[in-house]
Structure formats: structure tokens, C-alpha cells
């Protein structure tokens, strides 16, 4: 089922072709498309786009990001967790006197994993030379690129918050200010580091000169990240988790990401007769919202480093557990659920598909905009602040500990049919919005047959605390009133708050090729040929 109509305000059309790419920035989409046109695989294109994004959208990701991917290689799905760990020196007592983990500066920085993810993907699935894949990113960094209005705005906000962080102003505030829309900016430090990554196939970043520069900068500014922490890092190939939703299986990566929360929500929703009303009916939204709450509270309580989980992720996806959680949903009233426990037993997202049937769902992020705000001088390595994802609550499963992976918000998603054949590569950027966004995209495209662009355009909701529900600007007034009558505590967010509802990219496999959509909330672009 596929509905080509565009029922929401939009200036975009879905694009179709034998190959497709959808990213959060047009130059990155073009970088990936260049690899497809050169005969490269979807993985080659994904890496090229990811490298380009650390240059042209540094407000959302960087050379010091973490990354995750799901790859359909033409025969099976593979998952990649390229997220880093806490420094060996991090213990709860290091943060004594604080109620929560620091969000900025070196005390928030864990080992960055994205570069290792690029190399792992390339070694397993890539076909083009690494220097060819990196060429567009190098060109943007060395010759410069024109800053778009959306990224200029985020850059300005980041500059206001982070100008005092070590290395930030030198790299990102040329002439003492953030670039404005239409300004051309060059990032020579990024170029030098990208060249070294290519020359050493990432070794310098983790076990060479670049790793030492990162460690030296940490030591000079009171950080605890060491060369030994960097050298110990390895990305991990993993199997996906999945749950049934309608006639499809939705796949997510296992923890330490919040994908398990999305799967719980979808598994609960699938038990709630969501087909009884239309896609934009209050009843449909209500059931989706209530299912989402259950997934989110479970993820917040239980998700952490996979080796430290107290319950196997699969235990949350059994029929028995999902049935018990679905029984808590009142179809006539908003709830404020607590977590369950099984019984015994700033982000950028991109999607790529090639003409040989391979598909990639990829995400990388510095977390809160520019992340920690820390930049290693002369390298362009802006470091994520994923340490903020740890808990300082004694006894919590996600409490900070040496060489532990924190709870992460970034998650790629993938859908197959019930036989395991690929159907859609998709994701939604935006912190706690991501698991909620995955459910809304799956509901719209796979549940009700909307095309990817319509699903990306549709106004979204975001669950907040308790019965709180934030609604995006443009959300239908009558629908909002109907949800309020069901007990949802509505907050209408202004048009300036669009980033709080994420940005979606989707590629849907069809009998004759692919259909792709990109999100107008950011600079997203979908291309096909």
C-alpha cells in the first residue's frame, strides 16, 4: 500500500529511483550520491555523507561523535555499535556533590566512536578507495562551503553557549563570531584530520598521533580521557532486536541506545487495535502516545551498557511482557505509567539504498548540538558529551563506571516484512524525540501507507513528563482539543521550537525501486537516480 498524496503543508515531493539517499544536509546528500554514481555501494555513500556532515553540519555531529548503523547487505541485516566508553578514571566519587552528570567540557566526554564506525563499515562492505569516499568532505573543509540559514542559527546558539570551552572559538568562531547564513567557511583542521584518518585507516585516531593529541588536550584541561582509553576502543558488530508491528518487523539496535524503548512502544501499540481509526484521528494518536510512554519509561529505567543490563533486552519483547504493558493502556484516558520489569526468563541521520538492493540506516551525533564544546586545537575534533547520559543515582543500572558505555539517545531503524525482506530504512534525529519519532514514522508509512515525504512533513507530538504532551506548530487545533479531552496536558510549541521534534529521513523500498523523503525542519534533502 502506498499513498502518493501530501496532506500536510510542504514544499517537497517524494523522490524515486533505482538508488536513493536522504540526509540532513544537501551537500552531504550530494557527497553520498557521487559515490553511488561512481559505482559504489550504499555503504560507500553512507560513509561519504557521514564524513561530509562533520564538516558541513558541525552543529549536529563531529569528528568526535559516536555512531550506529544497520546495514542490509542484500542477504541479511547487520548492526554496528560504534559508541565509546567512559574513561577508566570515571567513578561515581569523581562526581561527588553533583546531582547529575556534567553536560559540557571534558567531564562530559567519553571515547568518540564514529571514526571507528566509518572504518568498520568500509572494511566490511565498502568497495571504493577510502580517499575517494573522503574526497567531498575534504573539498568542503579545504575550499569551504556556504553556511545555510538553519545551520547558521544553530551555530550562533552553540557559539553563545560554548565559546569559553577549550578550543571551541579557535575552530568555530572565526573572527570572533559564528558564521552567518550565506557566509563561506573553511575548516582546515577538519581537513588535516580527515587526511590522517584516510592515510592510517583510522589508526592514528585511536592508537597514534591524533589519539595522543586528544589525550594531551584532556590532561591540559582537567579531563581524564587518556591515550589508553582511546586505544582500548573497538566498535562492535551486533544483531538487531525486532518486534512485530502490523505486517512488518521493526528492527533496532540493542542497548546501549534507546531503540529498545521504540520497540516496546511499537509492540504495545500493535496490541491496541490501532487500525480502527484514521492516521490523524485522536484515538489513533492517543493509543500511540500511551504506547510510547511505556517504551520510554522502560528504556530510562533499564537501558545501559549491554554488558551491565540486569535483564536481557529480548525479555522486554516477549508476548507475555508486551501483553502485560498493553493492558495498562486506557483507550479513553491519558496515563502516567511507571516502568515495568520483566520476570525471569545536535544529531544527524542518513539513509541510503543502492541499485543492488543494499540499504543503510546510519546515525552519528555529538549529542547536545556541538556536544561538549571541547575541540582539540588544530584538528577540528569536536568531542561529544555522551557522558551526560550516565546516571549519578546510587544503584541505578546506568550509573557511571570505568570503561562503561552510557545510555544513548541516537538510534537508526529498519523495517522488513514478516519474511525478513527489506522494506524501509529510516530514522528521526533529536535526543528523546528519536524513539517517539520511530513509532510515528512506522505508524504513518507502514501502518497507514503514507509516502515517506508525507510522513516527514506531518506535525509531530512529543511525550514529556507525566501526562504532558508537546505539539508541534501546525498541529491541527481540533485534534489537539480532542487529545486534551482525553486527559493529555497539551503544550503548543512555537514555530521556533521545530528542532524539538526532530528531523526524519526515510527510504521505502517499492517493487520498482525506492521512494525517499526528507525533513523540511532542517536542511534535509533526498536524492534519487
Can you describe this structure?
- The structure is a single chain.
- The chain has 529 residues and is an alpha+beta fold.
- It is built from 16 helices and 21 strands.
- It has helices at residues 26-37, 42-56, 114-125, 130-143, 149-162, 168-172, 188-200, 203-207, 209-220, 227-232, 259-269, 282-302, 319-326, 433-447, 452-457, 477-485; strands at residues 15-17, 20-23, 66-72, 77-82, 145-146, 184-185, 236-238, 241-245, 248-252, 348-353, 359-365, 375-376, 381-382, 413-417, 422-429, 461-463, 468-471, 489-492, 503-510, 513-518, 525-528.
- The strands form five sheets. It has a seven-stranded antiparallel β-sheet with strand order 1-20-19-15-14-9-8. Strands 7-4-3-11-10-2-21 form a seven-stranded antiparallel β-sheet, with helices on one face.
- The chain starts with 14 loop residues before the first strand and ends with a strand.
